[in-house]
Amino acid sequence: MRIRVTFVSAGSVPESLIALVPQPARIDREEAAYGRRVTVFAHHEEPRLLAEALRAVAGKVAVGVVTEPLAAAPARLLLMDVDSTLTTTEAVDLLAEHAGVGERVAEITERAMRGELDFAESLAERVGTLRGLPTEVFAEVGPRMTLSPGAMELIATAKAAGALVGVTSGGFVQLVQPLAERLGLDFYNANLLETEVVDGVEVLTGKVVGTVVDREQKGRDLLRFAHERGIEPRWTVAVGDGANDLGMFDAAGLSVAYCAKPVTAAAADVAIGFPRLDAVAAFAFPSF
Question: Which GO-annotated molecular functions does the record name (predicted)?
Answer without folding.
Answer: L-phosphoserine phosphatase activity; magnesium ion binding
